[in-house]
Amino acid sequence: METHHDTHDQENGFWNIANVVIGFGFAAFALVSGSILIIGGIKAAKPTSAVVTTVAPSASSGDVAVINIKPGIANPMSYDITSFSVKPGQKVKLTFANESATPLQHNLVLCKAGTKDSIIALANGMMTDMAKWMGKGFIPESPDVLQHTKLLNIKESETLEFTAPAEKGDYPYLCTFPGHAMIMNGLMKVE
Ligand SMILES: [Cu+2]
């Protein structure tokens, strides 16, 4: 094996571990914040209420829904847009730009309606073989995956161009880097 490959693998290994550690830090923070709100008797608060929900401004050029998503500013292990709406069969141009001060790798995986929990489980299960899944961009091997970016380093971006499903529903999108998906997710509402 060539030496520069070894170095690259070691760097990837470092970031794998760093990302997972940071991911669980944020997950723990969200859970604790949620618990405090519940103990405080705020009935409307959900356990994930530490994450600010942001609805995308409706930007459309012609009949194309143009959606631009980045990591959140307050929590770099979230998406800044956690919900957007498109029409059934509408053309969608969805850009995920990994523009963040925090050097974390992310992807964006759009999935079938109702599969959020199972995709989160698949993503977290990848932790047992980080090297294998790193090579696959942490994209789950599941028929529930509709669209996905590659694993994006900081400053990288990718645009997905696709036709929205004909069937109305809430289609989850998640970052499937292990440890991220519990918080780093959102919904594409086809309505
Ligand atoms: Cu991520």
Any descriptors?
single chain; 191 residues; alpha+beta; Immunoglobulin-like; five-stranded mixed β-sheet; four-stranded mixed β-sheet; 24% strand; globular; binds copper (II) ion
Give an overview in words.
The model is unreliable at 1-10 and 28-50 (pLDDT under 50). It is globular and about 40 Å long. Strand 1 and strand 2 (64-69) form a beta hairpin. The strands form 2 sheets. Strands 3-9-8-5-6 form a 5-stranded mixed β-sheet, with helices on one face. The chain is α+β, with helices and mostly antiparallel strands and 191 residues long. The protein has one domain (51-190): Immunoglobulin-like, CATH 2.60.40.420. Helix content is 28%, strand content 24%. It has 3 helices and 9 strands; from the N terminus they run αβββββααββββ. Bound molecules: copper (II) ion. Copper (II) ion is lined by residues 77, 106, 175, 177, 180, 184. Copper (II) ion binds next to loops.
